Amino acid sequence: MLTAYFREVVSRHHKRAATDAKVAAAMRAEPSDDLCPPGGLLLLARHDGRVLGCAGLRLLAAGTGEVTRVFVAYGARRRGIGQQLLEAVEDGVRRAPGDQAPARYQ
């Protein structure tokens, strides 16, 4: 799903279809390794065994967080999947340990 996310980002930036090399370069330039506990999370939206979207969260210093990598596959858009992903990210923030959760959610 992250490859699809980056393919769309790179395509929009260059205003043409992204090559595999450009997508790979973008993924190296902006790694997603930190989108896992304890400092973050990456959620996937699935339906009937297919991954339809993703949303990530980085827990930053000083009780702040950054939502990132929000993406819904083209054929799955306009079904509320993005909203559900963001609500799930908020739930993930609420479950983060108190010293990591952004102040708004403590």
List keywords for this structure.
106 residues, alpha+beta, Aminopeptidase, 2 domains, 26% strand
Q: Given the helix and strand composition, which structural class is it?
A: alpha+beta
Low-confidence stretches: none
Average pLDDT number = 88
Specify Rg, calculated over alpha carbons: 15 Å
Q: What is the CATH topology of the largest domain?
A: Aminopeptidase
Biggest β-sheet strands, sense, barrel: 3 strands, antiparallel
Percent strand equals 25-35%
Count of DSSP strands: 3
Walkthrough of the structure:
The chain has 106 residues and is α+β, with helices and mostly antiparallel strands. Strand 1 and strand 2 form a beta hairpin. The chain has three helices and three strands. The mean pLDDT is 88. Helix 1 packs across helix 2. It folds into two domains: 1-31, no CATH class; 33-105, Aminopeptidase, CATH 3.40.630.
Summed up:
The chain is α+β, with helices and mostly antiparallel strands and 106 residues long.
